[in-house]
């Protein structure tokens, strides 16, 4: 366990209220054709709507919203939407616009919300007409009217000027997909009701309509079930691994949380008001350890197990006794009472069958039930859950593993291991939601910046989320209607705080929303990137802690002869304009514009930022460049030797305050400084920490490699290439220093020229793991 990290001092991903005001001015950019055909026009891009509407026709003039404007609505449904619009305007633009009775004509003009059965295009469609004297939002149904209000609110927040000016136009709009989803894992880490509500608000303002709530897993059962109180009393708490699980008094310090049924009802109501349906997930037969911990009779071994405090794929399954099926049905009975939506998610993923294979009793039950293998057993259980749900007028949805052993008749498949499961299910005539981990898993990090929070460093950048197309090209036309839509999933193993949840979601949710809502041929990356500036402005108005890393400038610095360095700048989203200084000053619109790699004389202090319309997108970060900084690399700046399963992990301590972060390949903790210049280098210093090895890897565990140790606690070893000569070897201590780190130094065998420095720790270190924090070369 390591307590602090020097580089954590500079770590941040909080929103800085940076000056981006000019960005919100409608951008008249040239749309660049995307891969799917005719993109949005420059004019459409200029309105900065996200997602883009299906059709937008500009008109002459504009409508001003001010405190003398009034809102008109007839009937409860339209009045409710008008009030929601007024609320959003109040919170984000600090403007009070009163709701008036029909017939009242305010001198500041009127915004009218109308339920109009004549508006076609489906229940979520709407029409928005803006002229200089009047705004009319009309839809056949409240859902559509709400989306019309969201579009109007977006127009009112694209530009921070007062009074608010809405360009005259007509928008006719309807979504491309009916399932526009986001999944949040509240089991691995828990979010408060207030945080869930903030997320629901943000979803609604992106026109997303499905919130998949992952409520049960090995690490916690988070929904109160009256009939089984221990599910939350016991199954709602775990003792975190390592130092995070020990209080200052030396006693276990549990991590707990669950939603009472009253809170669930409150969240369901809040979502419904925003036209979001909640799909609850009760996971079976795997991801069951919290339930089995609370009620061991549900498990296969009968052993008392703790609620799991490790991440990965765990082998604990529910057993297949009739009493366990009854338990699952009793849980579903309370779930369907709480959640009025059509779908209930029953999980089905990653149910490694080892326990069932090894259990004579499960094998006996399989014979009794006439199922031929363990996949068939899972299918039997899922079909049983479907029967219950169908009898209660609900539909079952599960992860794509429910295909194995045979799908229940009416099941919908959520395709996460790529899109293949979805294609197979559609071919079998089943509905599908596309949620491939390769494109739509938001626990994957979005940039390789050292400022990223913990997560999975196999990147899913914004561009990749944006480019995802849910209807596979090869899918026969008659099966396409089975693709209900798409969903991004937020797994929270690495998200201890809601701030991290927000970092993962925003701005990638905007890319998801555009694919989910807008016509395919309208999508174009460059236009979306331009509209994002206004979207960030909206996030700030809403108090959303969005990721800054996609908007930061990255620098690569290499040393040059005569005390100089070569600096190469880039930014993750490819914004064309970057400006920089080398004297430590904040870059301004008059600072040097980056054109190509440039030389600086050392020492220097580099600051660079992306500029849009004369202002930095996010504040520039300082980077000191001197001879010693060029001889030092943090773990984020090093490559992984093999990269079999790289994670960006957070330390297990301290209890309060920031914790160190480490990039580490947990199958082969080994770091590589490629082509390190060793001329004149005499010594090497490694700062290392230690953390728990808290992973369940099921059948992948043998892939974890350990190198033999020669001394009692193993060695730090540095080689010229991982299979090359040993350049230094230092015995490891039994424990770290009081700050949780050790600094290990060694003379380096003379090795002139450039070498790939390979750094690793020998020995089987479980249940802990050494991790590299910094590598520094010291000249003679
Ligand atoms: C999953 O990611 N295990 C659905």
Automatic annotation (TrEMBL):
Keyword terms of this UniProt record: Glycosidase, Hydrolase, Signal
Catalytic activity: Hydrolysis of terminal non-reducing N-acetyl-D-hexosamine residues in N-acetyl-beta-D-hexosaminides
CDD domains in UniProt: GH20_chitobiase-like
Main enzyme class: hydrolase
InterPro entries, alphabetized: Beta_hexosaminidase_sua/sub, GH, GH29D-like_dom, Glyco_hydro_20_cat, Hex-like_dom2, HEX_bac_N
UniProt superkingdom: Bacteria
Pfam families, A to Z: CHB_HEX_C_1, Glyco_hydro_20, Glyco_hydro_20b
Signal peptide limits: 1-33
Beta-hexosaminidase bacterial type N-terminal domain span: 47-174
EC number(s) given by UniProt: 3.2.1.52
Glycoside hydrolase family 20 catalytic domain boundaries: 177-519
Domain GH29D-like beta-sandwich residue range list: 566-614
Sequence similarity: Belongs to the glycosyl hydrolase 20 family.
PANTHER family linked: BETA-HEXOSAMINIDASE, BETA-N-ACETYLHEXOSAMINIDASE
The name this protein goes by in its record: beta-N-acetylhexosaminidase
